Amino acid sequence: MTGLPDDPVLHALGPWLGSERGVLLAVSGGPDSSALMHAAAALGAAVRVATVDHGLRPDSSPEAEGVGRAARALGLPHAVLAWTGPKPGTGLQDAARAARYRLLTAHAEAVGAGLVLTGHTRDDQAETVLMRLAAGSGPAGLAGMRTERPLAPGITLGRPFLALPKAMLVAWCTARGIPHVRDPANADPRFARGRLRATWAALEREGLSPARLARLAERAARDDDALRAAAEQALAAALFPPKNTDAAALRLDGTALAALPEAIALRCLDAALTRVGAAPRRLERLESLVFEAVLPALRRREPIRRTLAGILVATDSAGTLSLAPAPPRRHKTAN
């Protein structure tokens, strides 16, 4: 499917709609996702629309119903996906984000959609990079949001507007008389994104613009992809054949790992942890394990045992590194 060459919004979205996979649009009613829905309709795409109602504001339900009316006026099927149940007292935005993608993934599976598209813009990317920079993230975090990533087997999340500034989408909607809502939570100082948005004017005066932060994300993503590919190759080369006694474990040539550049060794161990079913882990804890314990032990041929994210990581005097699910902790019983 091709868009109009002089319309950057249609030009950005068009290539995403030419797939044979069913397409589900995530539309909140804001200017970015409203542009996504109306642009898809302008391109004649047969897509579905879903709105997640987080139930966090009195206006959320009417806003979701408003998106439904707009979608049906364009001839697009629409569903409201409600986030029900108790809401956490802390980490509310993170929990809402997780719930949003969980609901969208489940709905995509139900309707047979293989592609879920959101309206994230370059401004959203810049905010993500800035927040991760403040958190001390490494290259993977500074790469920000990827243009596409897997949501579930057979379902991909895509962000066709990630290179477009938000102002362009707002102007696109305004020029076409497309109504949209504004979420007051976007400027709420209780949340990190709201506080960061209040600093944009000062940051831009110092040259830290959304465009430059988005460019940083592109560069970090390029480097992280290269390092990750090198780490996967190193992991494949270091793997010993599995022992029949413990198919869930991995055994690696520690001498080869210890000779790797540290950035690749770190990612190699991270990939190995993922393979054996490790839980999500913080970069700081992974760095501490690899740089302060595992690599020094391998270089000294010293046996150690450490646990991270539910995985027992051990070295032996022969220079072998093994990873396996940690045994359950024993609970002390009262006498």
Automatic annotation (TrEMBL):
Indicate the enzyme's highest-level EC class. ligase
GO BP annotations of the record are: tRNA modification
Residues annotated to bind ATP: S28, G29, G30, P31, D32, S33
In terms of SUPFAM superfamilies, this protein maps to: Adenine nucleotide alpha hydrolases-like
Question: Which reactions appear under catalytic activity for this entry?
Answer: cytidine(34) in tRNA(Ile2) + L-lysine + ATP = lysidine(34) in tRNA(Ile2) + AMP + diphosphate + H(+)
What Pfam families is this protein classified in? ATP_bind_3
Q: Which residues form the tRNA(Ile)-lysidine/2-thiocytidine synthase N-terminal domain?
A: 23-198
| CDD domains listed in its UniProt record | TilS_N
Q: What is its main location?
A: cytoplasm
GO MF, any single term: ATP binding
Q: Work out whether the entry's keyword set contains Cytoplasm.
A: yes
A GO CC annotation recorded here is: cytoplasm
Q: Which UniProt keywords apply?
A: ATP-binding, Cytoplasm, Ligase, Nucleotide-binding, tRNA processing
- Name the EC number(s): 6.3.4.19
Its domain description in UniProt is: The N-terminal region contains the highly conserved SGGXDS motif, predicted to be a P-loop motif involved in ATP binding.
Q: Which family does it belong to?
A: Belongs to the tRNA(Ile)-lysidine synthase family.
User: What is the name of this protein?
Assistant: tRNA(Ile)-lysidine synthase
